[in-house]
Amino acid sequence: GGGGPSGGAAAAGGVELCSYFEALEAHGSDSALTHGVYTLDELKELARERGWCPYFLARHAISFADVVVYNYQYLLDPKISGLISKHLQRECIVVFDEAHNIDNVCIEVMSIHFREATLSACERNIGRLYQEVAKLKRVDAERLNREYQRLVQGLAQSGALPAGSEADEIRANPVLPEGMLSEAVPGNIRRAEHFVTFLQRVVRYVKGRLDKCAADRAVYVERPARFLAGLAEEAAVDAKPLKFASERLRSLLRTLEVTNVQEFQPLMLVAEFGTMCATFETGFTVLLEPSDDRTPSLPDPVMQLCCLDASIAIKHVFERFQSVIITSGTLSPIELYPKLLRFSPCVVRTLTMSLRRDCICPLVLCRAADQTALSTRFETRSEDATVRAYGELLIQMAEHVPDGVVAFFPSYLYMEEVIRKWAEAPRAERTRGGDGSRGGPRARLASGFD
């Protein structure tokens, strides 16, 4: 939030605040929404009328809504689910609809990749962190001490420290017992300046690996344990503190009161990469490639943490909620999904689909009416003659099929390219479906990856 003249407000400490968020905190959190179904656009309009932040209004609405519809990532991606879905109760019924590709989504949300440009941005992030930490130590050293105390309290709540009076004595002591604290959060990332230096060594090592990959023009595949061994040997970075790198960085950014968190996204990505390498011993592999598959002749090294086990992302969903339903019209073979996601289903049902008439008639065409070759081969599919021929075919089909037509494309990119060219053609209006009020032919367009 914060666009326009009323978008910002100054706090007592000189930190700029978002007036829309503050208004929601002051009034909106205690104001219930009226009963009904709200789309994102309707929530945005409601927030605009009341001067509230629409993003945090949507997050607030999730906590008391009866039904919430959102993408898989809001529940599967640990970076997002911890913010959006943490208040959902165990009794909630989770339904993964159109779940025939859920294994691919699980693998995608747990995989990470970056290039040299990301690491260059990381170096700038680290330089900025050094400046911010030094500035804070001069201006408000007590805030860094409070971060240390919050770290201790978090350890106690997570069970890493003892509870009760003994915990109170530990928290009152400015120095925790060395053995206990080193087991929870190692000393080389405990203090802010030490942690920034720690991240700098990680970034330099990863950058060196990418440079070597580009120079050798070779592909390297290794397990996370081998990657961590090289990191310890060449950069003196141990795996134990690396487990805490992602959360420790977020804590530091909150302490420094960084408002533009997106600026530090590259460094957060590398910290998450290190945390996942140190956390998961199996189910992942580290892949280094010297170039992009689309431009193999150009050096553009990429490092990837590839998830190989779809069950890792969805495991916490099965453990957290008592009712999880996975359904799709094309969930086949249905016996495969419990194996891919490693769960034991309580109920398995396959429902047959009955149609009133034969409405699926396979037809293979290799030439259009003007004898133009029809093909979706990458080399020829963008030619004007091919695009025109497909448009004419779609028009002819829509004119004769009574219930409408759904046209699938190999990719979103190709679909947008074809629609753009059709829009420039004289018969574009007929291709789009004509005037619905006059009963013209209709066609729906969809990507094959939808």
Short overview:
The chain is α/β, with parallel strands linked by helices and 450 residues long.
The whole-number mean of residue pLDDT values reads 80
Distance between the termini: 31 Å
Lateral arrangement of strands in the main beta sheet: 4-7-6-5
Q: Report the total helices.
A: 20
Shape: globular
Give the H and E element order. Answer: EEHHHHHEHEHHHHHEHHHHEEHEHHEHHE
**Percent strand:** 5-15%
* Number of beta strands: 10
Largest sheet: 4 strands, antiparallel
Structural class: alpha/beta
Q: Percent helix among the residues? A: 40-55%
Radius of gyration: 27 Å
Taking pLDDT < 50 over at least 5 consecutive residues as the criterion, the unreliable ranges are 1-7, 163-185, 428-443
